[in-house]
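Request:
You are asked to prepare a plain-text protein record giving the amino acid sequence and the backbone structure tokens, at your earliest convenience.
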Amino acid sequence: MRAVVQRVSRAQVSVAGEVTGEIGSGYLVLLGVTAEDGQDDVIYLAAKIAGLRIFEDEAGKMNLSLADVGGAMLVVSQFTLLGDCRKGRRPSFIAAARPEIANPLYESFVAEVRGHGIEVATGRFQEQMQVELVNEGPVTILVDSRKEF
């Protein structure tokens, strides 16, 4: 699994003009699932992201987690994170899991994060979505559940 984690002051996702998920302060997580991923990847990545300390403490040092600041998480499925652009000009998405594999793992990731006591909002799997956010910092972190893809 691959995730782009952005520290936000607010974020929302809409489908066909309808807001399907929104948060105030927290993380926007764009989540890509590979064909090789399983429940171990879900557990690892959910714990890693839930525990990230990328909010600033009173000394201005990134030292506080989502739970420490009472933040929420907006999770949006995004298979394009797995696009391979090393050859040619058109990305290859061969590493991305098929929807019948990706969706249950995406849902499991959301449930796992909620299990850490974090409020989670979501987009809609396999829909055209519009994502709006205010990235604070800006802070953007890439997190993978494996060493290589």
User: Anything to note?
Assistant: The beta strands are 2-15, 18-23, 26-32, 53-56, 62-65, 72-77, 120-122, 130-144. The two ends are 9 Å apart (CA to CA). The longest strand covers residues 130-144. The chain has three helices and eight strands.
